[in-house]
Amino acid sequence: MSKKRKQEISRREFLEGTGAAVIVASAAPALAAQVPAASAAASESSTVPRTTVRVIVNGTPRQIEIEDRWTVAELLRDHLGLTGTKIGCDRGECGACTVLLDGKPAYACSNLAAWADGRTIDTVEGLARGGQLSPLQQAFVEHDAPQCGFCTSGQLMTATALLAGTPHPTPAQVRAALAGNLCRCANYNRIVEAVVAAGSTTGRATQAGGAQ
Ligand code: FES
Ligand code: FES
Fold first, then answer.
1. 141: Cβ below 6 Å to ligand 2?
2. Residuewise pLDDT in 10s, the chain (212 residues)
3. Considering only the top CATH level, what class is 49-212?
4. Is residue 94 in contact with ligand 1, taking CB distance under 6 Å?
5. Is 96 left (phi over 0), alpha (psi -120 to 50) or beta?
6. Which of 29, 31, 94, 103 is 20 to 30 Å from 119 at the Cα level?
């Protein structure tokens, strides 16, 4: 083995042998820095402004103390355990987080919980009643409207509001209403079919499990 080759190996071996130590050594300041950061976060959390809001969530009156910085999505998911409302973009672009505020579709990620004070919030958890899917949910099942399903709860909430005001929508009306609800799986045709089918069936149109 040449002298040069020996030097290369020994350099590699040295780096391999010390790599873990180097990583630990370089990570140590970062790990140490996280401790005061976490403490600071906890401390900050105890000092941020808080407000008590009264909301009606899926028909149930709730009185909750919130931090003023919480969004409706955070209130629902992190503090009421209603994780059916999904967060996709978290910046008002995808519609995955759509809920109904006073019966109208709204992006839960882009509305502060404080703004919901005194209002009704309807989420996908409130659509089924007595273990029965709402007619719209049933139509989604029958038409294979969900693929991965991540956008589905938002699509359902927007469509629920549409059907409440337009019981028998045309495909064009459904597409227009759902324009703010993106589907990464691009299953739009089946989603539209499902909503039209829900509206076209007598007795389904009122969507009793949805907007109140
Ligand atoms: S998560 Fe709210 S609009 Fe995308
Ligand atoms: S079903 Fe996957 S994002 Fe719509």
1. no
2. 444 544 454 444 433 433 333 333 444 444 444 445 555 566 666 789 999 999 999 999 999 999 999 999 999 999 999 999 999 999 999 999 999 999 999 999 999 999 999 999 999 999 999 999 999 999 999 999 999 999 999 999 999 999 999 999 999 999 999 999 999 999 999 999 999 999 987 444 444 444 43
3. alpha beta
4. yes
5. alpha
6. 94
Whole-prediction pTM value?
0.77
For helices 135-142 and 152-165, the axis angle rounded to 10 degrees is 130
Give, using CA atoms, the residue closest to atom 4 of ligand 2.
183
- Residue 74 CA to ligand 1 center (angstroms) comes to 12
Helix (H, G, I), strand (E, B) or coil at 125: helix
Q: Where are the domains of the chain?
A: 1-47, 49-212
Q: Which ligand is nearest to the CA of 150?
A: 2
The residue whose CB lies within 8 Å of the most ligand 1 atoms, and thus the one to mutate among 71, 109, 155, is: 109
Q: Which strands make up the sheet holding 104-107, listed edge to edge?
A: 60-67, 50-57, 120-122, 98-101, 104-107
Report the alpha-carbon distance of residue 67 to residue 49 in Å, rounded: 6
Question: Which atom of ligand 1 lies nearest, measured to the CA of 95?
Answer: 3
Listed in order, strand segments (DSSP E) in the chain are 50-57, 60-67, 98-101, 104-107, 120-122
Q: At what angle do helices 188-200 and 152-165 cross, to 10 degrees?
A: 40
